[in-house]
Amino acid sequence: MKKxxxxxxxxxxxxxxxxxxxxxxxxxxxxxxxxxxxxHFPAFTGTLTLARVLSLYEAYKNTLGIAGHxxxxxxxxxxxxxxxxxxxxxxxxxxxxxxxxxxxxKGAQTTDEEKYVDNGECREDYNRVIKLxxxxxxxxxxxxHNLDVTQSLGHFFAENSHLQFKLIFLDCGIYEVVKASLxxxxxxxxxxxxxxxxxxxxxxxxxxxxxxxxxxxxVPIKTFPHGWMPTAYIVKARSPQYEFAGKTSQDTSSLKA
Length: 257
Ligand SMILES: C[S@@+](CC[C@H](N)C(=O)[O-])C[C@H]1O[C@@H](n2cnc3c(N)ncnc32)[C@H](O)[C@@H]1O
Prior knowledge:
This protein has 257 residues and is of the alpha/beta class.
């Protein structure tokens, strides 16, 4: 049961969501072959879900040609990582672009700050995600790292110091998770690359907004005009001071704390 009733951003589409959910029960009752849900998915999926996919696609498309891998922080059932891997297969079949997904597969560990999210929400089984990836032959593109982002990212990047990203999707709206992610990922985002925030300025994740404002106070934050979640993104600027800065390998110039 939810802690409280959302009243602002989540409420905006409450009527649309309720109508779709009640139709969905009837749609499921129409007796389609389950394979139809896969092969003919636009016939079944909701407009909000499609809008989300289009935002992720647009962000991906805008990073084509920029060096680096793709990261998803918060994998859950694998929708983001698998979408990105499929886009890599479609648009850059001969590139070395990989998708690195980070999750501890325990769901959200909420604090007093999250009024609308339950502890443990969005918990998925690690082995099922790995099976889903392997069954579709994406285990050469997707690498899932089963770790606590707040504790183990430093060690992970010390062990894999070459990793650089062109697109980073932050999708765990808890303050400490977003803060640790920004600390470790921002210096590894190639200038011109994009970092996506699932719930900046959303009542579900006040900690996400707080962490972004603390860590990146002066950076322009954009949004997708057609999209709802991810709610925001930053294109990392190419800083002129690094034109000749051979001795500086990591751009922490705009990152505070
Ligand atoms: C909202 S879900 C991600 C949804 C996914 N990006 C998608 O588009 O379907 C958030 C995920 O963050 C993970 N998570 C929460 N706190 C974490 C932490 N400290 N370290 C690693 N993963 C964490 C949860 O287990 C959950 O799977």
